[in-house]
Design goal:
Layout: H1 15-21, H2 26-52, H3 57-72, H4 74-82, H5 90-104, H6 108-120, H7 139-147, H8 149-163, H9 178-201, H10 206-227, E1 245-246, H11 250-255, H12 262-267, H13 276-283, E2 290-291, H14 294-311
Helix pairs in contact: 2-3, 3-10, 4-5, 4-6, 8-9
């Protein structure tokens, strides 16, 4: 039998192995950030050239999606940074996390406390804040979720509520950190406001063309990735069964900062992103949910399940 930590989690590594795996690195974090920023720059350039040269609409839209994917996956950079595992330096984690949230329309200061509760109460109804966003139970609700529309509405409501100082509905925010979160969200909205004002003043739709449209077009891809993390997994405290790891291609692993190794991350949230693959080599056989067919395989199986529910007389 595996030894267990005081939290009830299985100890799959010795203390010495864990110490080695937990070693953070500014160099590795900066390298991954450089790769991601290079992808953003390349995507933006190709997209801009397609607009400038009057490329076919289908090609321009395809390039907009590709560019947008590099922006929405900055969510993963923010996620690593709020765990303070992306870099060794605290200031790098905090500054990169805030910038990454700005590009992906998240707020890293708010997300740090929200996500802390998600880790503390993963898959526990009434406690895990991620469960407030209901999972699709019909094909129509699946399409709505994949469109990103509920996400946009939720983000706008949350950002503007916090900016107005209405934070009482967020139990994970305490009196000690509420003012910090409000200031951070107000600053973020101010940056968007300045970008919109500059676009209007210069009579160039840059804010829409190079941020809003690409992010909106690529948001379904991020929704598809995030839906796979816990959907269909068990409720309860065991990260070996309440979280899914998904095998995927290298470009996605790079831009998602190895978040597809999600069960490993939930079991050991202090591991930096670059240690998760090594952790998977040891933990893989212990995980209840490993999707080896990739994200497409997960969604095909999920849709089959949705399609079968009414036929089996289940309530959806």
């Amino acid at each position: 039998m595996h030894a267990r930590a005081r939290s009830g989690k299985r100890m799959l590594f010795s203390p010495e192995q864990l110490k080695e795996l937990r070693e953070r690195s500014d160099a590795k974090g900066v390298l991954r950030l450089a790769i991601h920023l290079t992808a953003i720059a390349a995507g933006a350039w190709l997209y801009a050239v397609s607009i400038q040269r009057g490329a076919p609409v289908w090609l321009t839209l395809l390039l907009a999606v590709a560019f947008g994917f590099t922006l929405v996956t900055m969510f993963a950079a923010m996620h690593e940074s709020i765990h303070r595992t992306a870099f060794e330096s605290r200031w790098l984690n905090d500054s990169v996390g805030w910038f990454a949230g700005l590009l992906s329309f998240y707020n890293s200061t708010f997300y740090r406390y929200y996500h802390g509760w998600h880790h503390r109460f993963t898959q526990i109804p009434g406690k895990d804040p991620e469960l407030d966003d209901k999972k699709p139970t019909r094909f129509s609700s699946y399409l709505l979720e994949m469109s990103g529309a509920p996400w946009w509405i939720g983000k706008l409501k949350t950002h503007f509520a916090i900016a107005a100082g209405r934070v009482e509905s967020f139990p994970f925010l305490s009196e000690q950190n509420r003012s910090e979160v409000v200031r951070s969200v107000r600053l973020q909205l101010s940056v968007y406001g300045l970008a919109i004002a500059a676009s209007i003043a210069l009579r160039e739709p840059w804010f829409v063309t190079f941020w809003l449209l690409p992010v909106a077009l690529a948001q379904p891809l991020l929704r598809a990735i995030l839906l796979a993390e816990h959907t269909g997994c068990t409720s309860g405290e065991d990260p070996l069964s309440n979280t899914r790891t998904t095998h995927t291609v290298l470009p996605v692993r790079l831009l998602m900062w190895d978040m597809p190794y999600h069960a490993e991350h939930h079991h050991y949230p202090a591991l930096p992103f670059f240690a998760l693959r090594a952790a998977h080599e040891r933990m893989g056989p212990e995980l209840a949910h490993v999707e080896r067919r990739g994200y497409l395989g997960f969604h095909v199986a999920f849709l089959r399940d949705l399609w079968a529910r009414p036929r089996a007389g289940q309530v959806s």
